[in-house]
């Protein structure tokens, strides 16, 4: 039997890199003992035509297939050997704009369980992108210096973090209520200032606080009232015009019906006069 040579890296062997077109594949292992590799697919970030993007194209790396256990800090550590990294932003799906870093309340916005994500990695220099495209693996997520919890240890830590601290919760609620009271006070002040002041058409907004019985006697208020009366008069004239036109059309229709009724009546009388009784 003649032995056939098989090309290295084909049919899913260790050297294979099943990357999409134009992407470079970087193998990643959770620990050194893990046999199978997870692949990150990377490419330089580009946009089509007139599409606007806030990511710097020559310094941004677009990463596909980011596993759930890989955080922004972890991904930054894995790619730090290629150059200084400015920002790492994980997203559920591709986007053309950077996400604003907002400080969300800890207790009122629970963390969702992440799935496979995409990432935008911005390097300080363009050379970091080219170095990452030529990066060989496998990269290790959990090492002795940077241990990443998994399995039952991760579940235990997540349970401990889910137990609320009463004092921290009280501070969070107090901060939220202070911001809410401040917002309500500003809205009431604004409503009080606008109370009794007519708009462009002369209408006055009535709130729960009530309204002034008399409009302020100012030149602007008088002009608004005159403008409103003029607009009402114009609408009334237009309605009267259409009403007169409709009335004339109705009268013409009635006259035609009367004329046809008379003609039919004369035709019936003529038919009766010409009728002759013929028993056989």
Automatic annotation (TrEMBL):
Belongs to the RRP7 family. It is found in: Cell projection, Cilium; Cytoplasm, Cytoskeleton, Microtubule organizing center, Centrosome; Nucleus, Nucleolus. This is Ribosomal RNA-processing protein 7 homolog A. One of its GO terms (biological process) is ribosomal small subunit assembly. PANTHER family: RIBOSOMAL RNA PROCESSING PROTEIN 7-RELATED (PTHR13191), RIBOSOMAL RNA-PROCESSING PROTEIN 7 HOMOLOG A-RELATED (PTHR13191:SF0). Its main location: other. Residues 1-25 are annotated as: Disordered. It holds the Pfam family RRM_Rrp7. Keywords: Cell projection, Cytoplasm, Cytoskeleton, Nucleus, Phosphoprotein, RNA-binding. Nucleolar protein that is involved in ribosomal RNA (rRNA) processing. Also plays a role in primary cilia resorption, and cell cycle progression in neurogenesis and neocortex development. Part of the small subunit (SSU) processome, first precursor of the small eukaryotic ribosomal subunit. Residues 161-280 form the Ribosomal RNA-processing protein 7 C-terminal domain. One of its GO terms (cellular component) is CURI complex. GO terms for molecular function: RNA binding. Residues 23-87 form the Rrp7 RRM-like N-terminal domain. Gene3D superfamilies: 3.30.70.330, 6.10.250.1770.
């Amino acid at each position: 039997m003649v032995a056939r040579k098989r090309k290295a890296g084909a049919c899913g062997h260790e050297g294979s890199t099943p990357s999409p077109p134009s992407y470079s594949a970087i193998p990643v292992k959770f620990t050194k003992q893990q046999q199978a590799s997870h692949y990150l697919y990377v490419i330089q970030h580009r946009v089509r035509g007139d599409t606007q993007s806030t990511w710097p194209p020559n310094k941004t790396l677009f990463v596909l297939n980011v596993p759930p256990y890989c955080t922004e800090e972890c991904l930054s550590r894995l790619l730090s050997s290629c150059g200084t990294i400015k920002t790492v932003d994980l997203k559920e799906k591709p986007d053309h704009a950077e996400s604003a870093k907002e400080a969300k309340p800890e207790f009122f916005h629970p963390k969702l369980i992440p799935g496979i994500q995409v990432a935008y990695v911005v390097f300080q220099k363009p050379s970091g992108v080219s170095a990452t495209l030529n990066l060989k693996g496998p990269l290790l997520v959990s090492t002795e210096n940077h241990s990443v919890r998994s399995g039952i240890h991760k579940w235990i830590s997540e349970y401990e973090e889910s137990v609320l601290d009463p004092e921290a919760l009280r501070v969070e609620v107090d901060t939220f209520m202070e911001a809410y009271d401040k917002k309500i006070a500003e809205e009431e002040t604004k409503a009080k200032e606008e109370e009794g002041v007519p708009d462009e058409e002369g209408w006055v907004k009535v709130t729960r606080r009530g309204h002034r019985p008399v409009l302020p006697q100012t030149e602007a208020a008088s002009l608004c009232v005159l403008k409103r009366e003029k607009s009402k008069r114009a609408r009334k004239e237009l309605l009267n015009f259409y009403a007169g036109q409709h009335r004339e059309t109705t009268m013409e229709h009635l006259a035609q019906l009367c004329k046809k009724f008379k003609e039919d009546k004369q035709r019936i009388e003529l038919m009766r006069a010409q009728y002759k009784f013929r028993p056989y």
